[in-house]
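Cross-check.
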Amino acid sequence: MHKVLFVDDEPNILEALKKTLRKESYEFLVAHSASEAMTILKRETIQVVVSDEQMPGMSGSQLLAIMRQERPQTIRILLTGHASIEAATRAINDGAIYRFLTKPCNALDLAITIRRGLQLHELSQAICQLLPLAQAQTRLLRKIAKHKPNVIMEALEGEPALVPDKVLEIGPLTEELLAEFVRIREFFQEHSAVMAT
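Predicted model, tokenized:
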């Protein structure tokens, strides 16, 4: 089951979020401070973190900036009641946040944002797992094509003219897939403040 961590120093806000999102299909974890959130992140695998900006000790954007370094695969969402372009830009640049939402935010918007964040996390994990495998298969196919070309030709039903091209296409395609994922993620990060307004 997916785990989503909500960080806010106001217990009544956390309770309201829990009540609002009770029908969602993920485990709802709470932290009342950035330091408590860091403790939870050390013992739990968290897919999405939703943090308030204004907290004593460490702001939400500072927490998400640390998380970017320590848990880069975790999707980061920032909530703030004091929205400004400067704050949004800092949060996006320092914490590479996925979305920037102003408080009070619509419950449906928050639910959809979290679901999309979970989908993005799953896509990121799938790419991270598949890319090394695809790269290894490409290296293996290149070795086979070089040393035993007949094996590949037989597998391709005797189309020798296509063998080198097909083998050499796999590597660049996997690299293009990863590059496209990075571009999509950067697009969401760059436009998160705009989409949140």
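Strands lie at 3-7, 27-31, 48-52, 75-80, 99-102. Residues 126-184 form one domain. Passed to J.P. for a second look.
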